[in-house]
Design brief:
The complex is a heterodimer of chains A (331) and B (342). Helix content of chain A is 67%, strand content 0%. By secondary structure, chain A is mainly alpha-helical. Chain B has a domain of 206 residues. Classes of the chains: A mainly alpha (331), B mainly alpha (342). Chain A: InterPro entries: CALHM (IPR029569).
Amino acid sequence: MDRFRMIFQYFQSNSESVMNGICGLLALASVKIYTCLDFSCPCLPHYNMAYGLGIMFVPPIALFLCGLILNRQSLVMLEEWRRPQGHRRKDLAVIRYMCCSIMQRAMVAPAVWIVVTLLDGKCLICAFSGSVDPKKFVGFANATLAQAQEMLSRVPCKEDELMRNSTSRRAVSRYLRCWSQALGWSILLILIIAVFLARWLAPCFNQAALLQTRHWSNYIDIEQKIFEETCCEHSRLFAHQCILHFFESMRKEIRQHSFDLPREKEGEEDLLQGITDRDQVNKLLKMWYYEKPPLDVSQVTHRHPLGQERSPPPCAGSCGARSKFTQHTHM
Amino acid sequence: MDKFRMVFQFLQSNQESFMSGICGIMALASAQLYSAFDFNCPCLPRYNLAYGLGVLLVPPLILFLLGFVLNNNVSMLAEEWRRPQGQRQKDAAVLRYMFCSMVQRAMIAPAVWVSVTLLDGKCITCAFCTSLPVEALGNASHRGLPQGEVKRVLARIPCKEIYDGQELIANEVAVRYLRCISQALGWCFVLLMTTLAFLVRSLRPCFTQAVFLKSRYWSHYIDIERKLFDETCAEHAKSFAKVCIQQFFQGMSKDLTATHCHPPRKAPTDAGEASEKLLGITDWDTMNIALKSWHRCKPPLHLHPDAPHSSNGWAGEWQPHTQPHTQPPAPRREAVVYYSGV
């Protein structure tokens, strides 16, 4: 139990590391999806560009939105932004900080996808093979424009029968892949330099304000978690009380109709709460379904769970006259 | 008990991460199911469309219904919806919240199946190969084939081994074209689903946060209350059974001493608890009689409050008990039968 409490506290205090973990998982998932994806360029004049650029840019958008959805802090930030002011002032700097950190984390998976796509090269070859200047390559220089376009758009498809053994096809392919990888490495370098600068230069500017905003954004996160946890605990206690009162009222009613002298309860029979009969149990269960007790545990002694007039029990003969239960008397 | 309560609280309060985990598992299971599935296009003109669209649309429906069946909260929702109002009002917002969250969770596996199917491309290739634009991609006028024949040839595109229309339209060209369309559809579908999910999640705090907090609390409450009630009933049943069985053995032992006229053998005080637990049944025959009696004539579901004290009503009557109502003394009889009409 202690271990659970420790894990619980760890998650409570380290929501940052949980979010970093999710961010890393999404990045890995994006690489995995790219490798599993069967990239097949259509090799048709107008479709190539649409397909190539589509594969390069549409999945990153979906991954970005996934990153926002899976990040718990985005909900916290939105609630903080939209809440009525009430007694607590809103600090825009905190909201901005939370927004920035959410965006940064959500942008990791799309960036990984784009970089992997460029380093692999297939997308760019597919998209831009039709835009290459045919005069630069021996095999296409002599063809008419239309023919050259047709042949160039088939460059990405290695197994195409026209282009299978064409050296010019390989030349175009290498050329485009070279551009693609150069672009990929440049983007990676720029991103890493940007992150490096951001982390190293941030302490030089306004460190005190940064510490404050970080503290309060962490606070808002923890406060919301603890509120949810308290609500859960409260609803459990509420339910417990409600059920106990229900059983208690059942027992009172049974006692009222059965003239038992109050006697010492012993051991197991104490736990039975006065319900010791098949019919009594059935009645209790039926009551639970047909008339759930009201959500009000403040009034313990004045409840009438049957919702009917209860006459004081005078004597055996006329006791059941106004009850809704039939009475069998064995005389 | 306490440990379970801690786990329960942890899972409940970290509902987000728990539910994200469940969703992730369902998505992976759906993807795994697709890869395990052996896709066999029939390569016949009218059957292709039916098979392709069937594989695309029927498993998601099954997965969606399965998501409902496997969700424990479905019975909770149904119970809350159908119960008589009684003393507790019903809140439509709570019911709506429970229903929405169940639907959202049940939609994950079907969405993953449809995405994976479209991104893979085999289904669309199979379903729409007869609708290829042959004029654009191949030689439509080649051989002057009639429409039906063209369709028959095109239908064999997914089955490379038997494809005989290479002059009409190259197999690779057709497959590439169809797969490109399929993947475009797949990515659009994925983008649409993630956009919808994002909108649903992000618009809620902007508009209905207070109602949401209320509905979430009360739906948790209903769940916890139901579980606690089941727990309480289980404990009650355990105590009931214990007392019932104890009274059975005690009654048995008393009857034996009464009929056999043995003086009640008090266990020697220094023999410890073990012999007290024997409840007076200490030999083979007696035990057999007790077991037979338990099988032939189980005691009534009615615990006698002062059975341990009285020993006069049972002499000679430990043969099959039929009327529980005849045993207890008169005033209590009325209490017993009072509820028998319920």
